[in-house]
Amino acid sequence: MRQTSDADAEAWVLTTEPGRALLIEVTATSTYGPTELQRWRRKAAPELVAAAVRLAVGRSRGKAKFTRAEAMWFEPVGLEQATAETVARHKASRFRGSHLLDLCCGIGGDTLALAAEAHVCAVDADQGMCRRTRWNAQVYDVAERVDVIRAQAERIAYPSQWLVHVDPDRRQGNTKRARELLDYSPGLEFLQALPKRVRGGAIKLGPASDFLSHFGAGDCELELISLGGECKEATVWFGALATCRRRATRLPENVSWTDQDGPRNPVVPIASPLAWVFDPDPALGRSGLLDSFAAANGLARCAPGIDFLTGPEPLDSPFLACFEVLEILPLDLKTIGKLVTARKLGPLEIKTKGTDLRPEALRAQWKPRGPHPATLLLMGGKGTSRAILANRRSPAAS
């Protein structure tokens, strides 16, 4: 995390007349080159100019997560780790009508949503983050329902009847995001003990982390949440807030599939691609519910361990991207490149599973110029490598 001195500089930009004037000027500029920086440094110290740039960049990037980003106070790592507003509101709906504790609140992404449901005590060990949460609570008109405390999550005392949300730090000063819960802060011991200390709550974990190894058994509910087709987080619900064992949720459609919706021991056949191939939402796969969903909908897997599904008819579901199969090809890049050129394909959507091929690199290699849009589904695997030329089915076609 950044030092408090950065927060002091940012506070000057946000709360003083010359600081706000500088921020307006910086925000109106699309580039931050030497000429611009030199001009601004005639008006303010370098650290204040740097603070204004951080705020402007943060607000610009924050628009992808928050509806009021243009007035918020962001910090780069805090923004990256912050829960998107749509996801936070989805989670907060379970916390209605209770006193809440939001541990490791960061810039306040979850706090803001929780405060719309109940009074929140937001806690963070970083004073700068505490200041940012207070500011952002004012932006969202919930400041009267938020108390912010600087403390370490492991040391603060709270009533056992409260509900708790915790978003552990997944970096701890490192540039790379931790994938193992043992590297989280607060650590695994604290996180696993939390369900025994309070009557209910939620633990936010990275969707690519080893959450199944540590929370896959017991009475917890594991919810994998996707937003716009990207898996955003694994939420461990415990105590009074757990409703099932597994849940996959897709936002903003707000649809879920749980372990109670399909067969308990699904058997999904393996079949060569049929007339239609489906790319499932990643929340289904990460939650372990893909086979349950496939079996309940009469679908097969295209290959063992490959998360492309197939069936004889189109299937309309928010959890599925639906593709009509035009041609099945060997996974030979030269052959596919010649086909792309000969048929004048483009723009070209490329989806890969079971292979380390990168769509952007393939597009650069093949240079699809069109004018015929198409999709290529590329799947690896021993003995099952193939490419499928397909057309994406629009939801409007249903």
TrEMBL record:
Domain THUMP-like per the UniProt entry, residue ranges: 321-392
Statement: the UniProt record of this protein carries the keyword Transferase: yes
Pfam families for the chain: Methyltransf_15, Thump_like
Protein name (database record): SAM-dependent methyltransferase, tRNA(Uracil-5)-methyltransferase
Keywords assigned: Methyltransferase, Transferase
InterPro entries, sorted: RNA_cap_Gua-N2-MeTrfase (IPR019012), SAM-dependent_MTases_sf (IPR029063), Thump-like (IPR041497)
Claim: Transferase is one of the keywords in the record: yes
